[in-house]
Amino acid sequence: MPGSTTADAVVVGAGHNGLVAACYLARAGLHVEVVERDEVLGGAVSTVERWPGVRVDRGSSAHVIVRHSGVVEELDLAAHGLRYLDCDPWGFAPAPAPGDPGPDGRPLVFSVDLDATCASIAAACGEDDARAYRRFVGVWGPRSRAVVDSFGRRPTPLGLARAFWPLGAPTGDGPRTPGGDLAVDFLGSGDALLDRWFTSERLKAALAWFGAQSGPPMSEPGTAAMVAWVALLHDTPPGHPVGGSGGLTEALRRRLESDGGRVTLGDGAARLLVDGGPDGGRVTGVETVSGRRIAAPVVVAACHVLATRDLAGASAPPALADAAPPVGNGFGLVLRCLTDALPAYPGVDPAVSAQGLQLLCTDRAQLAAAHGDWLAGRLPREPVPLAMSFSASDDTLAPPGRHVVTVWGQWYPYDLADGGDWDALADAEAQRLVAAVDRFAPGFAGSVHDVHVQTPLLLERELSLLRGNVMHVEMGLASMFAFRPTPALAGYRVPGLDGLYLAGASTHPGGGVSGNSGRTAARVVLTDRRPLARARTRVQDVAGRLLRAGR
């Protein structure tokens, strides 16, 4: 029979948020165990040997938000082996492909160096847009830093006010209030913001495609801040860990183990152990798939919120049992390509184009059409690709003469309106997406030796991403901040089930690699434990005085 163990806290799920939560709890002195069904550490922040000698990311590749959140520094992950390679230039948008409508032009190159970026915009789009971009970064830099601040706090009215109120303070440019143009900008769409600032469609398309990586189309309300995140990348660019995306989660495990924590792979939680019923209970631990019981007064569920509901079963209180956050109908299609060359854009040195995000979109109409097809449950009639090729700067990923090129196509439905079978469609859709890259980088298709295709269905199978949604829950305005994953569950606690906490992409601030959710969940746990710790200390003090008096 499997044995039983005890812990101060059990974390369900060894994705990066679960590991971050575990690290903060262990650093505070708690005995922590992380349990994970997968044999691979890291969930969607992991890297495996996909082909002999070739290391390939399973989920994320470019890390953006975590480089601004402070988690890496607070946990001193560099001392535990994490080393980031800066993506600089962090963005590249090619000139229109041959045969595309519109004038030929120069590529857009977005660097950490703002002067160099503005020079590229001036050459490709004109001096007016270059000057506008410089002003844009100046205005939206402080605003985006406020977003960073809000992501690192519980989404309470007070927390949001603390993050954004400084933007309403008087400045040298005159008074500004939290209402007025600030509210319009934050609540407005990314497209509207871009149209107010810029004239060149090529520039607007590149920035819209960057912003759309969060999920919603830039035509939706509340997406302006997703576009404006570019302002921060002129301070700290996206990064790729040496050895692959999993370098982050491997460093987190080493940090956790250095503080006495433990990670168990291949034996995830099967159910929560609960004392009491759905009208009011307390978690007492978890039972794993193997039947092992881990007694603990705290469980941090860093898995999908609906997976947490399943683990609670009949003990789920109404706030959890009735949770129905918008999961959506898939998100995207990912190709992991083994090639013998990097994508080569005409007249562009691969040392420039291959460092960051290759934003292969020159007209926002392409994005609108792809999203419209997704809404209708169709495959995109014109796939829109984003390419990344970090083996250009990291020789640990592939042997000499080989490269790993990730191609991302967004807005591919999980359920197809015509009943199509993803297993049967995968290869043909991969070829279409490769061809979409080849239009901008002629010869790319011929360089591809093998492809691992991650359809929305395979993302669910491989990474437990429900319905292929890499963000767990849709990232629209109606499911962000205090609405995520639902208003009743937005505080990281589960009302009616004491000791159960939520973390992961289902919770604020949502998907992407940031660690914010895990850190905030750990802070909530530690806040709730302080009264108990103080009571224990008082008891120990009294006992100590009695013992000393007895002597």
CATH class of the largest domain: Alpha Beta
Largest sheet, in brief, is: 7 strands, mixed
Give the CA-based shape: globular
Mean pLDDT: 92
Query: And the CATH topology of the largest domain?
Result: FAD/NAD(P)-binding domain
Strand content: 15-25%
Strand order of the largest sheet: 8-7-16-17-18-15-19
**CATH homologous superfamily descriptor of the largest domain:** FAD/NAD(P)-binding domain
**Number of helical segments?**
19
Helix content: 25-40%
What's the architecture of the largest domain in CATH terms? 3-Layer(bba) Sandwich
Q: How many domains make up the 3D coordinates?
A: 3
Number of beta-strand segments = 21
Which regions have little confidence, pLDDT < 50, spanning 5+ residues? 169-180, 534-540, 542-547
Architecture overview:
The structure is a single chain. Helix content is 37%, strand content 17%. A hairpin with a 2-residue loop joins strand 11 and strand 12. The chain has 551 residues and is of the alpha/beta class. The radius of gyration is 24 Å and the shape is globular. It has helices at residues 16-27, 66-69, 71-74, 114-125, 127-151, 157-164, 181-187, 190-197, 201-211, 224-228, 246-258, 305-312, 318-321, 350-353, 364-375, 422-440, 444-447, 456-463, 516-550, and strands at 4-6, 9-12, 32-36, 47-51, 54-57, 84-86, 91-93, 108-110, 239-241, 262-265, 269-277, 280-288, 293-295, 299-301, 332-339, 357-359, 385-388, 403-410, 448-454, 497-498, 500-502. The strands form five sheets. The chain has a seven-stranded mixed beta sheet with strand order 8-7-16-17-18-15-19. Strands 1, 11, 12, 13 and 20 form a five-stranded mixed beta sheet that branches. A five-stranded parallel beta sheet has the order 10-3-2-14-21, covered by helices on one side. The longest helix has 35 residues, at 516-550. It has three domains: 4-50 and 63-83 and 242-325 and 471-532, FAD/NAD(P)-binding domain (3-Layer(bba) Sandwich), CATH 3.50.50.60; 87-112 and 236-241 and 328-468, Polyamine Oxidase, Chain A, domain 2, CATH 3.90.660; 113-235, no CATH class.
